[in-house]
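Example protein was shown:

_____
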Amino acid sequence: MKLTIMKEHIIEGLQKAAGIIPAKTGAAYLRSLWLRAEGESLALMATDANIEFTGRYAASVVQEGLIGVQGRAFVDLVRQLPEGQLTLTLDDQSGNLLLEQGRRKYKLPVHDAAWFQAFSTFPADNVVNWSADFFQEIIERVSFCISDDDNADAIGCLFMKSVGNGRIESCGLNGHQFAMAAFIHDELAAVLPPEGMLIQKKYMQELKKWLSGLEDIELHISEKRIFLRSGDGREMFSLPRSTYSYPDYMSFVSKLSVENVSQLDVRRKEYMEALGRLAVFTTDNDRCAYLELAEAELILTAQGQDVGSADERLEVSYQGDIAKIAFPTRHLLDVLGHFTSAQVQFRFTAVEGPCGVSGKEDPDYIVIIMPMKMTDVAYYEEEA
């Protein structure tokens, strides 16, 4: 194998591949970055036995071939080289890969091509075009509500399902929070399985990294895998579908629409700034912000052992019967940070029931957060 290629043409693909390659564990095949020189391109291939990445980049190929190199070491080396032309040559005598750039020369051991196992190819049928930016936005808006537990079955997954008339609901759930972002896409709705599609959260970081910088993508959903390809056809990313059954989230979403729901309208930025200050007074044992609700005023309080207490008042609009309710301060900040609306609305179903958060400038987006059970404990009292 022998070829020349520009570093700046492959460095982004190398970094995407490096994120997939296992750092230390796994067979040498999995720790390898596979290089295939063929035609007028160099293909980079990496897998962790679940995710697969393939990128093809223009190169001047003198001799075709396939080899594997120690993936992370190769990427770290190329990353630290200056931009410019790289020459890759397989030395038949020593069996090493020679990487040259000007007066720089490096020898890297290679893995025999016999170790290579063929990667999946992008299917030709039922392909849907989609916006990479929009897919990233959907992931960002719901993934913070997905459970971090790899053994959490369905609630450890991003869920997408067609609900009719081209409408798709994307959901994340972790037991105490729920997020749903809905949108219209007729073609995608037509290929989504009737039971919906699940993507495990453990794949989200590399998926978002792959989507970064892309404009359009092509998507295919098979029985066992999800295939994604860049609009220019240079890169492909595939990952397994999960087969869990997703919980019936409408059972708690519907509670937000019943009569006698209490409604609080508040300016988001002002609310977040106040919560940020209250967070100073929360600890692992005292995590909550307490909301005392009146028609035109919201009183926010927090207290923590050894740190003191806080009391802030905001002008709001409130209608309802609930006088006081409590939420983990950091959870509220996290939820509000995923909205863009200047004003947000909280719908309280009960003191310990689901609370829905929405905003006019965030159409078809809702987050549900569960309140905390309140206890009357005072760690800090002002002197009389």
Q: What stands out?
A: The chain has three domains: 2-115, 128-240, 250-369. Residues 250-369 form a domain with the DNA Polymerase III; Chain A, domain 2 fold (CATH 3.10.150.10). The first helix runs from residue 7 to 20. The helical segments are 7-20, 71-80, 132-143, 186-191, 204-211, 250-253, 268-278, 329-336.
